[in-house]
Design a protein that fits this description.
Blueprint lengths: L2 H34 L3 H21 L2 H17 L1 H28 L1 H8 L1 H6 L1 H14 L2 H17 L4 H24 L3 H26 L13 H16 L2 H13 L6 H33 L6 H28 L1 H9 L6 H15 L2 H16 L4 H25 L1 H22 L1 H4 L7 H20 L10 H14 L3 H18 L1
């Protein structure tokens, strides 16, 4: 099986699991929107949940995964499974030690942490600040368990297993759904129940990975080398990649702080819009990046640089083939989509409109957001951690300047738009400077031009269909079928690759 087909196969596994997770997440958000709306309780919970979510991206799914997978792959190739397992146990040792200290600090000083991320609450709404600080105390230990899940994901992905790590978010969504329903049934504080649900879900996500790890021959009981060469290399890689691997999440955190100075509900509008935006981003943008990293790590040697270029270009084309029409569809159907999903209970018409406008700001950057993971994976597979960090710092500055300026004019929508501007600058600079390592690696070919043209057609069709109101959403399967059918008819490489992978799965299922 070619590398491109392997990536498409593994990405389809991650995508299928992500679709299930996002579906459950949608149910979760529907319940949360109905019970919390865009209220004070909602803003407090979303800010509290931002803290462990950000650290998960920075230290776990971001820099840890990017640094761990190439090192684990190399150690396994050169020294065998047992040496690689020692490396994994050693990293777990440091996770427990470092995060344990951090958790203790947050439990003792929750107000200091809350002040850093939502100072507007302290200045304008002291009662919300107190509630948020208490929720931060409950939520924060989640970071320890979800970091452990990220380490399990690195081990399993490196060994060719992608399903169980991709299913882990389902546990979070199921538990939060249960917590919301329980709070409603007993008349409890929904935000507090959700905070405890986050912590319980972290334990469940970690436990889900253990049977597959054991089946692969891995055990947490065994020798460790806390100062071994592999650990030192991962530590060296992680230090500069903490910013570089999570620009988007850092933007969200800074945006949350700036949004706390805007009218009530602004934080919630951005949260709900981000949840919808994350669906296509997670289903295939992140999925391709996850599937690509192990493959790129095996092709990073100088003598295989041509294969490296081809694999990276193929993964990026796959990403854009899916996310260009996804961005078009979300942009064209933003208002009826938000109205259908959230427009009930405490979620007022004003909240529907505010969320839809924020979604428009985000989807402009969807193709860029979805491409960043594969590009950053390429740098880390090549051992270059400095370039992504330098670019990330510049993009953070762009986000702050654009966000602060535009929020004065268009409020929370300006913060969403600033994320998109920052993402496009990030991906363009990453692609440009990658040429220093592997020469010209990507060109705008026939397939990409046709994908863009078809996506613009989807955008026009969706926009005109909004006259039907919520009924316009019934046409989504039609637009998907038209896009894929046109891709196959026009003989686009990505369409044929998807058709081939899906055909193989269908035939295997019948057999």
């Amino acid at each position: 099986m070619s590398t491109s087909r392997t990536i498409a196969k593994n990405a389809s596994i991650v995508s299928a699991a992500t679709i299930l997770s996002r579906g459950l997440g949608l149910v979760r958000d529907l319940i949360m929107a109905y019970t919390l709306g865009a209220s004070v309780l909602a803003d407090a919970f979303f800010v509290a949940f931002r803290v462990p979510n950000l650290l998960r991206s920075l230290f776990a799914e971001g820099s840890l995964t990017m640094a761990f997978v190439p090192t684990f792959v190399k150690v396994r190739q050169e020294q065998g499974d047992e040496a690689a397992f020692v490396l994994a146990r050693s990293i777990q040792f440091w996770l427990v030690a470092i995060l344990g200290i951090l958790i203790l600090f947050v439990l003792l000083f929750p107000k200091a942490v809350t002040l850093l991320i939502a100072s507007g609450f302290a200045a304008k709404r002291p009662e919300m600040f107190e509630l948020t600080a208490s929720l931060v105390q409950i939520c924060f230990p989640y970071i320890l368990f979800v970091s452990g899940v990220a380490l399990c994901m690195g081990v399993l992905n490196s060994m060719g297993h992608f399903l169980m790590p991709a299913l882990a978010p389902c546990i979070l969504n199921i538990v939060l759904i249960a917590a919301s329903l329980l709070a409603i049934s007993v008349g409890g504080n929904v935000a507090v129940y959700l905070a405890w649900g986050v912590l319980v879900a972290g334990v469940g996500q970690w436990l889900l990975q253990q049977p597959v790890l054991r089946a692969k021959g891995f055990s947490w009981a065994g020798p460790v080398e806390p100062t071994g060469p592999g650990v030192r290399r991962i530590g060296t890689l992680m230090l500069p990649t903490i910013l570089g691997s999570a620009v988007y999440q850092i933007n969200i955190l800074i945006g949350t702080g700036m949004a706390s100075f805007l009218p009530e509900g602004s934080v919630s509008y951005l949260y709900y819009a981000d949840r919808l935006f994350q669906f296509p981003l997670g289903v295939f943008g992140v999925a391709v990046g996850v599937a690509t990293l192990p493959s790129l790590s095996t092709l990073a040697a100088p003598e295989r640089r041509t294969d490296f270029r081809d694999t990276l270009a193929s993964s990026l084309n796959l990403t854009l083939f899916v996310n260009l029409p996804a961005a078009a569809g979300l942009a064209g159907l933003s208002l009826p989509l938000v109205d259908l999903l959230f427009g009930r209970g405490e979620f007022s018409p004003a909240a529907v409109n505010g969320t839809a406008m924020a979604l428009l700001g985000y989807v402009i950057g969807l193709p860029a957001f979805s491409s960043v993971r594969s590009l950053v994976s390429a740098y880390y597979a090549l051992g270059d951690t400095r370039t992504p960090v330098r670019i990330a710092l510049g993009c953070l500055l762009v986000y702050v300047v654009v966000g602060f300026t535009s929020m004065q004019v268009i409020g929370h929508v300006g913060l969403a738009l600033a994320s998109s501007v920052s993402a496009w600058i990030n991906v363009l600079l990453l692609g440009h400077f990658l040429r220093r390592h592997c020469g010209p690696w990507f060109r705008i070919g026939r397939d990409l031009v046709l994908s863009l043209a078809m996506s613009l057609g989807i955008l026009a069709g969706c926009w005109f269909s909004t006259g039907l109101g919520k009924a316009s959403l019934l046409l989504i399967p039609v637009w998907v079928a038209v896009y894929m059918g046109a891709g196959i008819f026009l003989n686009l490489t990505q369409a044929r690759l998807f058709a081939d992978v899906l055909g193989r799965r269908f035939r295997r299922g019948k057999a």
